Amino acid sequence: MGRNGCKRVIIVNSHGGNVNLLPFFAQSQLASPHDYIVYVFMRPSHENMAGRPPMKSSGHAVDFHAGEGETSRTMVARPDLVHLDRAKDESGADQARQKLPDSLYTGIWWYARFPNHYAGDGSVASRELGEFDTKTLISDLVTAIRAVKNDSEGLKLQQQFFEEATHPLDTKQ
Fold first, then answer.
1. 22-43 residues labelled b (16+ CB within 10 A) or e (exposed)
2. Which terminus in the chain has less CB density within 10 A, N or C?
3. 116/72 same-domain check
4. Does residue 141 belong to any structural domain of this protein?
5. How many C-beta atoms surround the C-beta of residue 10 within 10 A?
6. Which are the contacts of 106, defined by CB distance < 8 A and separation ≥ 6?
7. Which residues make Cβ contacts (< 8 Å) with residue 94, sequence separation at least 6?
8. 130 belongs to a structural domain
9. Which pLDDT does position 12 carry in this prediction?
10. How does the average pLDDT of the chain come out, rounded?
11. Does residue 39 share a domain with residue 92?
12. 63 and 34 in one domain?
């Protein structure tokens, strides 16, 4: 995108598995100078936002992949892919097969917790919840796009970073 003249690139994450990779990718852009800047839009949580329909799956400790929230949003974006009648066919409960403190991370954490690759209870999803979350996401994204358009400092700071790395301040007293 930078080669095509884009000076500001926004990556919108639509897959939970990218929450660590995308900030790392943005930081890795500082490995060499660029005439563009990369922003990563991280969808804020609105679980306790006023007006949000209550979650029905409160008995589940998690609401991740194909859980109530994600399934509700899919009911809005691609209703043809949602089959609530099949949502109870496999367990979406956390199996907790690896006993580690929260301060430790392993690459196998997802499979250790959710071997069915399903985390939550999608059977209780609702279009009402999906519409609320989708409208809120769109509003958040519009706010982020406006902020990027108005950001006059990010690219300057990035250029300053490389100028100072190439020509460090004179340290002679």
1. beeeeeeeeeeebebbbbbbeb
2. C
3. yes
4. yes
5. 16
6. 98, 100, 112
7. 61, 62, 113, 114, 119
8. no
9. 95
10. 92
11. no
12. no
